[in-house]
Design a protein that fits this description.
mainly alpha, 434 Repressor (Amino-terminal Domain), about 0% strand
Length: about 350
Amino acid sequence: MSSRGLWADVRLRAAWARQDWAAILREYRRAAGLSQRGLEPLVGLPQPHISAIESGRRQVTSAELMARITEGLEVPDELTGAITRSSVSDWDPPAELRDRIAHSHSQGRTDLRTADWIGEVLAKHRRAEDEVGGRDLWPIVRSQIDAVTALIPHAAGATADRLMLLAAEHAHWLSWVAWQENRRGPALSWIDLAHGWATDGGHADMASWAQRMRAHYSLRLGDPVRALRTAEGARHSGAQRLSPAAEAAAAHQAAMAAAACAERDRARSLADESLALALQTPDEGDRPGWLYWLDPLRARLQAADTAYACRDWAEAAAQFSDALPDLRERFPRDHAHYQARFEDARQRA
């Protein structure tokens, strides 16, 4: 594997985001399958020095040593400026991102190799929720969105539209992490950017998903009426037809909001619709990348979640019981959430 390919590893990128040099060396060696001696020629340090850094007996403090390690490990361009351009404290979207989008669709040719690489890395970030916290990766993804939006003023037509989708996917990810960190205002700002960019680029599935996330936020903030209105909007995102998976996600969110509004018959109908739509795309390749998780198992769990929200305790307990055994290994954090709901539903049934 090339050195650049190694830097798609999420644990390695998280170590870089923390500027934890001991972890950077350890995670690089793990990803590359190298011993400490195998790392010697790359960073220009003898094995005892590498061992001292990894064990914490020696700190990396000099700019010269940092530069040597950075160059030797061939850290990608979008990472080398990540720490100076952004930090975890920079939660709000900066104005220059909007400026770059405003100048899109000019004439010109854009090399998409950087965008392809960043898209590949973002896909790995999505799958690392249980392994690496989003907070650690925040500066890295902020740097990635800088790299993506910097390409847009030089792009045109379908290329610009493709970059708009990638920018929207990053904005959605940043919104979700900000929400998890109780940064409500920035979370809403980022999801609004994601929706606008997706709409401008003609990407109905992502525009719908951003609205669906807005509905989720409203529901969590205790406003089910607004959540239901927004989720219904996500189900009919413009003139372009949604994919079954995107429509399923929007229908599920509408079902949860309807249940919170005490419209239980409507919620049950939406849940049935959501499940039927999700089962149309059992293969991951047929779903948008950010819905990689919406397989038949998760679709059944969403149906159980709606039954739980409707206080159909016996049905919810039965549905959770059927699906939970297959979830533990694949999504341990989600397993804990659904396990708690199953136990509660079983007690109430």
